Protein: Dynein axonemal assembly factor 4
Amino acid sequence: MPVWLREHRWRQTASAVYLSLPVRGLRVTPANIFCTDRYLKVSIPPFLFEAILYAPIDDTNSTAKIGNGIIFFTLYKKEEAMWDSLTLANANKEKLQYLRENAVLKAHEKAKEETEAKKVTKQEHKKYALEATMKLEEAERKRIEDLKEKERQKVTKELELWKKQQEDSEKQKRVQKEGELHQEVEQLKERKKEKMNKTSVPNEGASKTRLKATKGCHGSYSMFSENLKEEQLPAPRSATTIKINFTSRVFPTALRESRVAEEEEWLRKQAEARRTVSADLSELEDLKEEEKNPEWLKDKGNKMFATGNYLAAVNAYNLAVRLNNKLPLLYLNRAACHLKLRNLHKAIEDSSKALELLTPPVRDNENARIKAYVRRGTAFCQLELYTEGLQDYEAALKIDPKNKTIEKDAENIRHLIQGTTQDS
Structure:
């Protein structure tokens, strides 16, 4: 048997009814509340509250708030009027049963309508999404077809242009051949005229011989016509063999594409380097050909430096210096490695050697000279030789006065020198 919740309070206005139902100690959720336009029910087994309302309410806009052990209902009336009581008074059992069943039936119909409405809405959303997708696909297909059409028109134009160029080229060749043929015909005609002019004034003996020959032959045969027939076609060319000698080259490029002066200078330097190392570097015989190239070794050292393998980079630069000790970048890069390894005296030596080789000072080697001064100045400062370090930084500033980083470092060194002087 259910336990009826009879304790409740209510008040009203012309448009709304406010009902508070205490449910202390009970756990209430919205699923425990059932409301229609004439029926209100709160079921928290085994507790039950039921009310057949005095007049219809707007159950769609009515609300129920749960909190602090109270359910507070705000029920909006369908017609503005003052109720005599909250529930329907003097109602028999059959009417109350009918109102309950009618309320449940209406709730089922409302739930069914809401389900159908959600289903229709979902179908409309699917239809809209499908139409939007179809429009996007249609637009994309049209864009692709437009691109294809443009490419087809472009290719067609290029093909027509190529055909026109081919026709013009064929026409030009045909005109050229006709001109050459015309020249050959004219030359043959001139030779005929020259032959006729030579034979038009013969001597007396020749004229008698010609007359006798003419009398002894039938028709209009003459030796002039026979000679002319023989000379109409030129004699075939004699066959011969042409020998072609190719210039032997070290570089893979063709001679017409090469820069001979630069290549000869590079070959000369390579030969000098090989002669230099052949005497005292017999242990390098096992190396590959590219490993004997200082430039290849320099690039290898740069890659090692970039990966943080400073010892391997120093070894690569050492071998490159043994192969060619006239490249200032080898000393400059090796100085950077020594700075990372805290070999400060070696960094100073390599920077000084790089500055010796970077002569004369020109615009092309400005960046290299700046790096040499900065690296040597950094090594001096790390050895606490701030005066020498400041001199190198000032020399770098003279080359590039707009370099803010070098200027800031030089200013810091000046402050260090001033602080050291004050302390002493």
